[in-house]
Amino acid sequence: MTRVLEVHDLEKNFGGVVAAHNINVTVDVGENIGIIGANGAGKTTFVNMVTGYLPPSSGRIEFMGKNVVGLHPRDVTKLGLCRSFQVPQVFLSETVFDNMLVAYGIAERSGWGLFTPLHTDDREARVDAQLKRYQISEYRDVAASALPQGVRKLLDIAMATVRNPKLVMLDEPTSGISVEEKFDLMDIIMLALKEEDTTVMFIEHDMEIVERFVNRVWAFYQGEIICDATTAEAMKDEKVREFVIGQEYHPGHVEGGAHA
Amino acid sequence: MNQLLDKTFWGLTIGLVALFALNFVLEEWMRSIGLQSLSRGCVAIGLLILWRTGLVSFGHALFFGFGAYTVAMLQIAGVNDIFVLLIGGTATAGLLAFFLGFLLRQYRAIFFALLNMAFSMILYGVLAKVEALGSTDGIGVSHVSFLGYVPADEDYRPTLYVFAICFAYIAAVLSHWYLKSTLGMMTMAVRENEIRVEYLGYSAERAIHAKYVISGVLAGVGGVIMAVTVGHVDPDSMVYWPVSGDFVFITILSGTGNVGATFIGALVYELLRTYAFEFAPEIWQLILGGSLLLIIMFLPDGLWSIRSEWRNRRRMAAAARGETQAAE
Questions:
Q1: Are the beta carbons of A117 and B196 separated by less than 8 Å?
Q2: CB 3.0-4.6 Å disulfide test: which of B15, B80, B219, B231 passes with B64?
Q3: Would you say B36 and B270 are in contact if contact means Cβ atoms under 8 Å apart?
Q4: Residue A257 pLDDT > 60
Q5: C-beta of residue A91 within 8 angstroms of C-beta of residue B192
Q6: Whether B186 and A106 lie within 8 Å, measured CB to CB
Q7: Rounded to whole angstroms, how far apart are CA atoms A89 and A67?
């Protein structure tokens, strides 16, 4: 197994508040990881540190064997570690197509190449393929501001993955999505990412989603990872039940289990 | 290549040919207005690029004046050819923008706008004080040569006009192509969402820096044309803050829809000012201010939006006709 991510002794303090403490984890290629935990447990802080948005107070983060602490998000992105956002970060006044076109342009060009025309037939084809992969082709010419929340989430992820990243971190991909739509949305996302052999890590509050789509869980509590285990084990873990998912949750009633 | 030879390109090219033809019939005062419009139009293209990025500069007279003064300085040093002056003026303006860009790219909104103004006022202060730079009287700019060709006096202005059209045409076409490039399209991306740009793998600040340098170079082109057209550079008409205001005025007037529109906007502005000054010397500022107000109220996207408005109306009318036919 190839190691994608290695995190050692990661710490983050905001003044007196400990947002991350003693975080040691590793991720191998092909693993799908669910990050769970209550609000303020340090999940997004962790993602922000790994993707270069927040500098950690101390610790080491290695992505594909390369230390990424101190790198900008854009450099981490170029290495093949991408992310999506809880609130989709898209170009609201532009159409879905133009959003994707710019995303591909930035991903595919650098230096003087940036002065070449953005709109080419080849690139248009790639945009359309990506829209199809995420099943949002019908919204191609709709302004991003007018999209339903689920579609905007898909657009955000479609834009985040134009570089075919090795690892993608999704920050609450199903937040703000109705219960009926959640599974379909996740099916689309996981299928699209699997096509590209991308290792996925996502933050999620819905345990049914976690059970169905990941094979490993990290449970965050007060800045620490209190459980790093397979999904089935984590759901039975006493500490996880007490601090994260609650005693009344009964795992295993989702058909199929972790299928990804 | 077809990507590059689009409607705007042909529109600009037709404009170029039309302006060439006009050269044979224009009176000298009209040619003067034309030259000044070309000059200010170039600066306004730079502001358009910044505007699309979500940034407004109230200080581009800094680069405009820098380009213009470079012409005067180079003439003192014995350089007299329009091409060398143009390269010199744009290079100094571009370099200045490059250095200031490291600071400016960290600011947005009103801070960006006023920091530009602050720098332009520093240059104004220096130019107004330093005797060697002509102080408040400025410096005269004598007739230039055109690749070694020195036209007779009566041919001088028409020749200058031809070259100015070419420079403005090149500036407009290159800017248009730039705006269609990946880096050019980042104007929109940076305006809309800097975080997304970063996470796509590019520095929003670097994108802004590039746009800033380009806008500085374009203002330099405008400054060179203006210095040679007016035959004189001085702090009040080249660098003072209302000069920057004129450029913003033109940008609002033109809208950010198309680079070609900036020249139309610049011409309208020039005519407005000229006629307001001629027919109502007491209240010409009032007329300019009133026009600006009307533009903002009725054409918030500038003159260019008349075109899209017209198209929409036609489409709506066609749709309405279609509906009535269907109903019948």
A1: no
A2: B219
A3: yes
A4: no
A5: yes
A6: yes
A7: 26
Task: Give tens-digit pLDDT for B279-309.
Answer: 888 888 888 888 888 888 888 887 887 877 7
| Strands, E assignment, chain B | 139-140, 232-233
- Three-state SS at B78: coil
- Only one residue has tokens 């358009």, namely B48
ipTM confidence: 0.83
Alpha-carbon Rg for chain A, nearest whole angstrom, is 18
Nearest chain A CA: its distance from B128 CA (Å): 39
At A15, which amino acid appears?
G
B91 pLDDT above the threshold of 90: yes
Q: CA nearest A101 in B: which residue?
A: B182
CB of A162 within 8 Å of a chain B CB? The answer is: yes
Q: Is A163 on the interface with B (CB under 8 A)?
A: yes
Sign of the C-alpha dihedral computed for residues B220, B221, B227 and B230 taken in this order: negative
Q: pTM of whole model > 0.90?
A: no
Pair B22, B37: CB distance under 8 Å: no
Q: How far is B253 from chain A (nearest CA, A)?
A: 22
Closest CA to B64 of B288, B234, B264: B234
Q: How far apart are CA A22 and CA A59, in angstroms?
A: 9
Are B201 and A89 in contact (CB < 8 Å)? Answer: no
Return mean pLDDT, chain B. Answer: 86
Distance from CA of A158 to the nearest CA of B (A): 11
Q: Across the interface, which of B177, B183, B199 has its CB nearest the CB of A83?
A: B199
